[in-house]
Fold this sequence. Notes:
alpha/beta
Amino acid sequence: MENQDWLILKVLFQTKNITxxxxxxxxxxxxxxxxxxxMEEEFGVTIVHRVSKGVHFTPQGxxxxxxxxxxxxxxxxxxxxxxxxxxEVAGTLRLGSSHVFTKYRLPGLLKTFKNQYPxxxxxxxxxxxxxxxxxxxxxDIQVGFIRGASSWNGEKxxxxxxxxxxxxxxxxxxxxxxxxPRIDYQTDPAIRALIDNWWRExxxxxxxxxxxxxxxxxxxxxxxxxxxxxxLPDILVHNNDxxxxxxxxxxxxxxxxxxxxxxxxKAALETNIVKAFVACAKAIDFQSDxxxxxxxxxxxxx
Length: 302
């Protein structure tokens, strides 16, 4: 069995459809079917039966498909260990990251690391913070970046803290917010809870939600175009956005902060590439605007 054979079993078991599995794997349907027949001949069993809406796995086929995760993990670990024997930082680094961190901080980090270690490649999975936990637990990734309170029991490092602000194109008074159009976006439950708790402590009436979009960057563009206000992480609001912003605080007047963490397994540090990457991330100032938002010709620092 080759590495791709195990991957075919895994994807086919997930999709239960040869056409969809072939699309995911960038294979033709005849090529996938041919590999599947070779596997059945190798093990001497029938792996799947074709049915009207896809395929049905036999008990033997289901057993092999469930073993695919273990085999793929062992192959990845074997590759990591072989590369590690060379005492060289090289290979593919598997990362999982929340959406906002992926867009606004991860590219700068990867560029810095790539400049130091040019023989490294990256495989990045973007997901909600809660799903990054699962990816790391299942060893699908080696390092994760999550936003919000960290309940990870393994190794973790606080990268930075940021405030949550109310952003608007036009000047506003906080007491007027219940009467103003608000733009919401899909986000992790942790930040949604922070915003909802602040609202309940501040106002007796519900907000006037005029839009509910799926991504925070879309929400910000709506705000930039004067279509309403929004609660945005401070990491997203820059001076050249020309937005009015007010940081929300608790009853004691302290800014309500959201944390961003790097998480990983301690055993992963035995791999050269992970050890070097973690050290690189710890050394970076993630709140530096010059590092992650370099000035353009029209926006030079004074």
